[in-house]
Amino acid sequence: MENNKESYKQIFKSTTIVGGSQIINIAIGIIRNKVIAILLGPAGVGVSGIFQTIIDLVRNGTGLGINFSGVKNVAENNTDPHRVAKTILILRRWEFGTGLVGMIVIIVLCKFFSNYSFGSDAYTFSIAIMSVTLLITAVSAGQLAILQGLRRIGEMAKANLLGSVLGTVISLPLFWWLGISGVVPSMILTALGALTISWLYARRVITEPVQLSLSQTFTEGLGMAKLGFFIVVNGFVATASLYLIRILIRSHLGLDSVGYFQAVWTISTMYINILLNSMLADYFPRLSVIKDDKIASNKLINEQLEMTLLVGTPMLLLMIAFSSLAISILYSSSFHVAISVLKWQMMASFFTFISWTMGVLYLSKNKGWYAIIAETIRQAVYISFIFAGWRYFGFNVLGIGFLAGNLACLFFVIYSTKRLNAFSFSFINVKSIFFLGGSVLATLSSSLYLNGIFQYFTNGFLILLTFIFCLYRLDKILDIRTWFKTRYKSFRRIQ
Questions:
Q1: Which terms in the GO cellular component ontology are assigned (predicted)?
Q2: Which of 4-13, 136-145, 259-268 has the lowest mean pLDDT?
């Protein structure tokens, strides 16, 4: 039991370190999004969202997932100074090369992206200039991957945080000065700021000198690219789907509606990424090391899943209950038409917690095809639901379809992890999934179908009950009360 507690504590420690910096990033993002919403309006948010989707689409297609597979390789070779030095050099060179390829692709296709995304070639030059962010962010991602692979989680968190601060300081004056025309300069300067900060931290990593020719770099980096290929296809499927959905919204309802969708998508993914990225920082390297031990890896997956549900679910309930307030704070009241979509997406995020935690197993075991199939199922169901349900559900189909896609993906992940690793949920996780999932569903139903005092009372009761359950379980696995008693006694002695 003591070993179990130490494992939970390690999960919680890495989560709080990265999560703390992510929360500050969110606070910074709130300010940035608020300013963008006020200065640029829904159409400006829509333009910014489409630009970012183009960048993500090409990055996923050309980046080969090197930063993700690099984390795994650095973590596995961490005990051998020569091999880790070699891996880091290969990672840096491949990141630069893939970033350069991505930049060239956007330049070549800039007119196509402008015509297809906006219905004219008016944004051709802007998209071409924006391409440089691909090269910059690729190099920056490689440097953060080195820190993560070496499990220097605190430094990685600081680099992310300071990069976000610097990017905000740079971008806000540009939006005030240039309006929508400031979107591209802001993206470029923000990427440069993040690159500078990540370089300052990555340069502290001292490795022994190694000599590698370009041909050796290419040959020995193919292992990273092989695993990265699955990440590329997986990310490409997701990003292409998102790009198609935004184009569908623009063609049906115009750029303002793209802005509404961009707003709720940013809020939902922003919150989810806080938690999942915080946990991934330490979880993926740990799982990669024990991937061949089914009992140990399944135990770690269950521990990680329990922590994810206990930490994440209360926040889902708060986001569903206060979605109107969240949109008003993050954007403006003009975005309220998308409130119901946000609620459905937060419900879907509960199932993302489960499938994501289990799905990391695919990449740790170099079985990336499973991840591709899972993501393809998610996006195929999502898009099919939008096409089939638009006339019945209207704009809300964007949230309902997302829920349907996440459920379909989860069923596949449960089946495939059982077949691949003989995985099964622990008894406590089965109870947690039913109880916490029921709480999320009940809060969603209350928020959609009740009004006034009845809604506030029901949501308040559900949130309180869920917080009590989660705190009770966290105390069981982390000894929270003992920690507070120790700190209280220390404080009394000082007094």
A1: plasma membrane
A2: 4-13
Predicted confidence (pLDDT) per residue in 355-387, tens digit? 989 988 887 887 878 888 998 999 899 988 888
CB 381 within 8 Å of CB 237: no
* Secondary structure of residue 120 in the 3-state scheme: coil
CB 318 within 8 A of CB 20: no
Q: What is the largest CA-CA distance in the chain?
A: 71
* CA–CA distances in Å: residue 270 to residues 51, 81, 203, 345, 476: 18, 36, 29, 12, 29
CA distance 493 to 495: 5
Q: Is 123 helix (H, G, I), strand (E, B) or coil?
A: coil
Distance between CA 330 and CA 343 in Å, rounded? 15
Q: Could you identify the residue written with the tokens 């940013």? A: 266
- Across 35-51, b (16+ Cβ under 10 Å) vs e yields bbbebbbbebbbbbbbb
Quote the pLDDT of residue 2: 46
DSSP codes joined into one string, 234-302: HHHHHHHHHHHHHHHHHHHH-HHHHHHHHHHHHHHHHHHHHHHHHHHHHHHHHHHHTTT-HHHHHHHHH
DSSP state of 150: T
Mean pLDDT throughout 414-423? Answer: 92
The tally of CA atoms less than 13 A away on the side-chain side of residue 313 is 33
For residue range 13-59, list pLDDT tens digits in order: 555 555 455 556 666 666 666 666 666 666 666 777 778 778 877 88
- Give pTM, 2 decimals: 0.67
* Structure letter (DSSP) for residue 155: H
Model confidence at 165, in pLDDT bands (50, 70, 90)? confident
pLDDT of residue 29: 62
Question: Nearest to residue 208, comparing CAs of 88, 70, 77?
Answer: 88
Distance (Å, rounded) from C-alpha 236 to C-alpha 61?
6
Selection from 299, 423, 283 nearest residue 364 by Cα: 283
Helix H or strand E segment including 121: none
Selection from 113, 99, 4 nearest residue 51 by Cα: 113
Half-sphere exposure of residue 22, counting CA atoms within 13 Å on the CB side?
20
Q: How do residues 217-260 score in pLDDT, each as one tens digit?
A: 787 777 677 666 776 777 777 777 877 887 877 776 776 777 77
Q: Give me the phi and psi of 492, to 5 degrees please.
A: -65, -40
Distance CA 118, CA 53 (A): 13
How far apart (Å, rounded) are the C-alpha atoms in residues 35 and 268?
19
Q: Say how far apart CA 235 and CA 25 lie, in whole Å.
A: 23
C-alpha 231/C-alpha 406 separation (Å) is 18
pLDDT value of position 214: 78
